[in-house]
Amino acid sequence: MPLILCLETSSTNCSVALATDQGGFENNLGVMNCLDLSEDQSDSYSHGERLHVFIDEILKRNALSTTDLDAIAVSKGPGSYTGLRIGVASAKGLCFALDIPLIAIDTLESLALQVPKPSNYVIPMLDARRMEVYTSVFQNNKKIKETTATILEPTTFQQTLNRSNVTVIGSGALKFKELNKDNKNTYVDALPTALTMCDLAMVAYKKSDVAEDIAYFEPFYLKEFKSN
Predict the structure, then answer these.
(1) What CA–CA distance (Å, rounded) separates 6 from 114?
(2) pTM recorded for the entire structure
């Protein structure tokens, strides 16, 4: 059976999962291919200290070693510059050492899958400081608006929100609700997790042309890094 290690470091949630196509543990998001999950949803970035600890823990817990892995999947962004850099560097190092494929997962697509029974529209939204967010729009799990860095205003996504039965999810969701005073749709404060990467990683693994060039792959930062 394929076994894929999934790494999610795009936010303060340091998250590691094992994906397999042989079924996994029960979860409230309807993810079918997750064998196990380790994560730390804290308010601070601890990826440098926790990521490899979680990798070791999840492998030992399942009586596995890195040589049992068939691929590494990493959340490619957008998100925290430092978090993405740590996750991608770790994924590339493992792929080089094990000579296995690297699979890049769209962070916002994975975040949107935290809506277990998709609304008509899902708007994943990651806080990018002040009133800016990284966001896109999905309809029936298909991206219909490309990822952008957007300055929130009361009328942002107004046409979509007027259609009702919309879920806005992510670390920028409640900030947006407070701004637009929308009481008709659903707003969920959430962080990306490796759990929802599992199904996406398994689908990608079974395609022949999705592996990244390990030497040249870079995270999808979306914006240039600024220290303040």
Answers:
(1) 16
(2) 0.94
CA-to-CA separations, 29 to 79, 106, 217, in angstroms, rounded: 22, 18, 30
**HEC profile for the chain?**
CCEEEEEECCCCEEEEEEEECCCCCCCCCCCCCEEEEEEEECCCCCHHHHHHHHHHHHHHHCCCCHHHCCEEEEEEECCCHHHHHHHHHHHHHHHHHHCCCEEEEEHHHHHHCCCCCCCCEEEEEEECCCCEEEEEEEECCEEEEEEEEEECCCCCCHHHHCCCCEEEECCCHHHHHHHHCCCCCEEECCCCCHHHHHHHHHHHHCCCCCCCCCCCCCCCCCCCCCCC
Q: For residues 195 and 192, what is the distance between their CA atoms, to the nearest angstrom?
A: 9
Each residue of 35-74: pLDDT tens digit? 999 998 766 667 778 899 999 999 999 999 999 999 999 9
